[in-house]
Amino acid sequence: MQHKSDPAEASEFLEMHPEVRTIELLIPDLNGVLRGKRIERSALLKIYHDGLCLPGSLFGADITGDTSESTGLGFESGDMDQLCWPVAGSLKRIPWQDKPIAQLLMIMHQLDGTPWFADPQQVLRSVLQRFGELGLRPQIAVELEFYLIDRQRGKNGAPQPPVSPVSGEREGSTQVYGINELDDYRDLFEDIARAAEVQSLPVETAVAEYAPGQYEVNLVYQADVAGACHHAILLKRLIKAVAQRHGMEATFMAKPYSEYSGSGTHIHVSMLDESGSNIFTGDSEIGSERLHHAIGGLLACMNESMAIFAPNANSYRRFQAETFAPVSPTWGWNNRTVAVRIPTGAAQARRLEHRVAGADANPYLLVAVLLAAIHHGISRKIGPGEPITGNAYKQVPPSLPCHWHSALDAFADRNILADYLDPRFCKVFLGSKHEERQQFESRVSPLEHQWYLRLV
Prior knowledge:
By secondary structure, the chain is an alpha+beta fold. It folds into two domains: about 5-115, Glutamine synthetase, N-terminal domain (Ubiquitin-like (UB roll), Roll); about 130-420, Creatine Kinase, Chain A, domain 2 (2-Layer Sandwich), CATH 3.30.590. The chain contains twelve helices and 14 strands. It has helices spanning about 5-15, 45-50, 120-135, 180-185, 185-200, 225-245, 290-310, 365-380, 390-395, 405-410, 425-440, 445-450, and strands at about 20-30, 35-40, 50-55, 80-85, 90-95, 100-110, 135-150, 205-210, 215-220, 250, 265-270, 330-335, 340, 350-355. Strands 7, 8, 9, 10, 11, 12, 13 and 14 form an eight-stranded mixed β-sheet that branches. Strands 1, 2, 3, 4, 5 and 6 form a six-stranded mixed β-sheet that branches. Helix 3 packs parallel to helix 8 (about 365-380), helix 7 (about 290-310) runs antiparallel to helix 8 and helix 10 packs antiparallel against helix 11 (about 425-440). The protein is globular, with a radius of gyration of 22 Å. The chain starts with 6 loop residues before the first helix and ends with a helix.
């Protein structure tokens, strides 16, 4: 069914913002990269009435922007246009631009009005529909880790931590939860908060993380799961743009430094029944039986989901023992060394936290596979085994596919996800990622020159 938004939304916006002359139409691709086009304000109502034609091959693009022909979305299909419609509630001003400008998220459909199978937003929506059959409604919160980096590159073009605007010294120490670090970048984080308010992005907290220049920004818990993913995508864009205005860059690359921690995307999930009660609440801190079933589904599906959690070559640098990036399917209460954590807190707010995915993961696809696994676990009453107490890295050997090729093989051989993901989408995803991997592995790196050029 077509996903049309009320044109009154556009009319009201234009009336409230006569200064806005240009609107950016944005659609997140397979990698979560925002693509689209700009229009003048005079064309906005037409977009709401008639939609916007964009090529479906947009979702066959790899990280470089080239269409992977093995996806079947390029020349094989004639590079056909599909029809995009506005996402309700996403028309907002862009506060970091010098000129008055706005942005609008779009979602793609086929010309007959059915969902475009390759759009990650549609992948998520198809999974969400399955919970209605169980009389359940998921709620999620997204936590995003990122690095601030200097615009001036270091040796061999490598990134380097920023120079503190207060001390004038380059960041060089790990001060997890450090308040001084937040104080040094107070102006930047205040600008992030103001811009988020303008765009109605529900930012909750910001903390210094486990490396120099690394931070985390959290979004509030909400029942609109697709909306939470919209917010995550747009918050990434906002943070990058505000950092640039402060003379820095922000990166959500999973592992920009060899010597420092990687950046993750942590997803918190709870589940409401038809009466609005949280079904994960139980008599103890480890929650209810259905919470355990949800965790059981996540653990059972973890191997075949890794290609979504870790979507590119750099993603796999992050998976190292005792770095808070899980390397085995484990769970426990109040334990950050496991893959799925039950956080401490009030019983009525009982939830799980999934800690495997990198900051580079596409939030729509990430949440889609997590919810598919949770649905599988709850509907089939899958047990998670015993929880881990203490250091999971010391107790459970690594078993997740922590290399790109093995993760793609596990996704190709999917068992649980085969019941939830359209095979046409899976063909597109695998085609794009295999071509990207082949291109990456065919390049000769500077390290190879350094090690082998003169000595072999």
